[in-house]
Design brief:
four-stranded mixed β-sheet; alpha/beta; L-fuconate dehydratase activity; about 450 residues; five-stranded parallel β-sheet; TIM Barrel; about 15% strand; 12 strands
Length: about 450
């Protein structure tokens, strides 16, 4: 008598919030007081191995409950799934989630529902990597190109990236992978840090953290800009004086400007040699980004953390609107869509420098960049992953930075699991931290 296949038995969700606004960690011109948060999902199964799948969406406070509700709305598509089949083909679940026509109407393929799909799909990849006994970057890098192509939705992008072209890129990308893997394991993947540059920090804190970043081996730092030009000029002057001419200095406006403002402001900061201007205007304004890029060169234009799907990235690339593609592990529909975006960037010859920080985004996106290095782009030249030094202690397998580089994870999975004690303390509103917070209780009673 054959044994019944293992199935997904639970989709547990949690509203996790951290009080980062109290110290202005994460503050920028558009988001002055964020409470970094995660709509967190755990897939449980009845498999004998006991493995779970963990995923999440990063938000910045209020609205995290809406994001949790969106994940809950997907539950019926996941419960009862055959675990073996699910892990062998995560794209099958993605197709079903994207194809729910009533939920699709809320996008399509953008916004809260699309991010919820990404959380669930990423949890499946975490489960698959755990069951395979590999960190996700290795699972992807070891996969056959044909299988990877089968995980990608080419609808709406096949005019610039066909399945055959993707297959050719992945086959070429495998050349020399063994040597690159050895280098990756020895040296890691280059990082840059935003930790000195939050807009709410005073000049002394900015200078102290910038100096520490250089001492720690980072060759690039980033400052938030966009609230006040005189302040930005002063802060860039402080940072450049501290780090010297040999360190790259990027600036990030977090969508604050109109097109003409972006051009004027970036030119005003040009004396400090900014490497890139990030999110200078609305992430949806493809032609605006193209105009800014033409006007501010040689300063590069970077965007992507709020670009909501592969189709928008396709247009930004087609329009020569950006110099740096910034993927985000939790903005689009998970690993599968990020595979498409990595291949689109490779097709256009544009480097990928992911957005990270937040809650767990560093933990996730390191895997995607390492896969890109091993199996797509084959290089780390002009490629760096953002690093922000907070909230890592809440993860079971936090990122490890050595000498300004991400150390390649060796633990099986997607590095997404939060510590149980962090769930107990920071679940909103009933966790021990929030239950003891007078402002929280006042708001709940209102």
């Amino acid at each position: 008598m054959s044994q019944a296949p293992a199935r997904v038995t639970a989709v547990d969700t949690h509203d996790i919030r951290f009080p980062t606004s109290r110290e202005l960690d994460g503050s920028d011109a558009m988001n002055p007081d964020p409470d970094y948060s995660a709509a967190y999902v755990v897939l449980r199964t009845d498999a004998a191995d006991g493995h779970e799948g963990h995923g999440f969406v990063f938000t910045i406070g209020r609205g995290n409950d809406v994001q949790v509700a969106a994940i809950d709305a997907l539950r019926d598509h996941v419960l009862g799934r055959d675990v073996e089949e699910l892990c062998a083909d995560p794209g099958s679940l993605l197709r079903d989630l994207i194809g729910d026509s009533q939920l699709r109407w809320l996008g399509p393929e953008k916004g809260v529902m699309h991010m919820a799909i990404g959380a669930v799909v990423n949890a499946v990849w975490d489960l698959a990597a755990r069951r395979a006994g590999k960190p996700l970057w290795q699972l992807l890098a070891d996969a056959e190109p044909e299988w990877l192509v089968g995980q990608i939705d080419f609808r709406y992008i096949a005019d610039v990236l066909t399945p055959q072209q993707a297959l050719d890129l992945l086959r070429r990308g495998r050349r020399g992978a063994a040597e690159r893997r050895a280098r990756l394991l020895q040296r890691g993947y280059p990082a840059y840090t935003t930790s000195p540059g939050w807009l709410g920090y005073d000049d002394d804190k900015l200078g102290r953290l910038a100096a520490q970043a250089v001492a720690d081996g980072f060759r690039q730092i980033k400052l938030k800009v966009g609230a006040d030009l005189d302040d930005d000029i002063r802060r860039c002057r402080v940072a450049r004086a501290v780090v010297g001419p040999g360190i790259r200095l990027a600036v990030d406006a977090n969508q604050r400007w109109n097109v003409d403002e972006a051009i004027h402001w970036t030119r005003a900061l040009a004396e400090f040699g900014p490497y890139w201007i990030e999110e200078p205007t609305s992430p949806d304004d493809v032609l605006g980004h193209a105009a800014i890029r033409r006007a501010v060169a040689p300063v590069k234009v970077a965007t992507g953390e709020h670009v909501h799907n592969r189709i928008m990235f396709k247009q930004l690339l087609q329009a020569d609107a950006l110099d740096i593609v910034q993927i985000d592990a939790a903005r689009v529909a998970g690993v599968n869509e990020n595979l498409a975006i990595l291949l689109l960037a490779a097709r256009f010859g544009v480097p990928v420098c992911p957005h990270a920080g937040g809650v767990g985004l560093c933990e996730l996106v390191q895997h995607l960049s390492m896969f890109d290095y091993l199996a797509v782009s084959g290089t780390t030249e002009d490629r760096v992953i953002e690093y922000v030094d907070h909230l890592h202690e809440h993860f079971v397998t936090p990122v490890v930075i050595r000498g300004g580089h991400y150390t390649a994870p060796t633990t099986p999975g997607f590095s997404a699991a939060l510590r149980p004690e962090s769930l107990a303390r920071y679940t909103f509103p009933g966790g021990t931290y929030w239950a003891a917070d007078p402002d929280t209780q006042k708001g709940q009673a209102a």
